[in-house]
Amino acid sequence: MGPKLKTYLITGIIISGIVLGLYFYPKPSVFNESFEEGFGEWIADSDVPLDPNTGEDVFWEVTRTDSVSYSGSYSLNLSIDGRQDDGTVWIERRIAVNPNSNVQVKISFQLYSEFESEANDIAGVCAYLGTYDPEAEADFTRLGRANQVSGWKEYSHMTNLNTGPDGEIWVAVGITVLWETYMSYYIDDVEIIIS
What pTM, to 2 d.p., does this model score? Predict the structure, then answer.
């Protein structure tokens, strides 16, 4: 076998190995939601204090709206009465994965603030990536201030997880109160990548 033929043979083996590796290497799972058809698989949840005037939880809600959107026609509006200087409101969803696997999970989303505020931290943007349903403000990681810009800003969070025997992960994004006032923000174009 001549040197030219050997070179072609080795090159062919290397290219075949790369092609097979790409074919059999697990591709990431990607989940996108822009709320054009409702909430999708997302549900609203909160951890809020009692209102001392009523003895009930402070007002909060998550609604689908067409008043502001990053893409398409709809987004979700997260609102909370923050006058008790506490509370977190979020959307969450469960995703089935292979049990007892090590995965990397990344979530990114757009958040809309009606105005920029450098003087006051009005609300924080928060996210959760884990193996159980988040139920408390302490479950979340704060990603930054909500009023960094007037308009849309992208936030993201990434972590590595062992999926455990249940074969599920939970993801959530929301806002947390930092200032004693009513507040309202919009979320759109949520993307989750599991690899």
Answer: 0.86
pLDDT in tens, the chain (195 residues): 666 656 555 655 655 555 444 444 568 999 999 999 999 999 999 999 999 999 999 999 999 999 999 999 999 999 999 999 999 999 999 999 999 999 999 999 999 999 998 878 999 999 999 999 999 999 999 999 999 999 999 999 999 999 999 999 999 999 999 999 999 999 999 999 999
Question: According to CATH, what is the number of the domain 28-194?
Answer: 2.60.120.260
Give the E-state strand segments of the chain in sequence order. 29-33, 43-47, 60-65, 75-81, 88-96, 102-113, 123-130, 141-145, 151-162, 168-177, 182-194
- What are the domain boundaries of the chain? 28-194
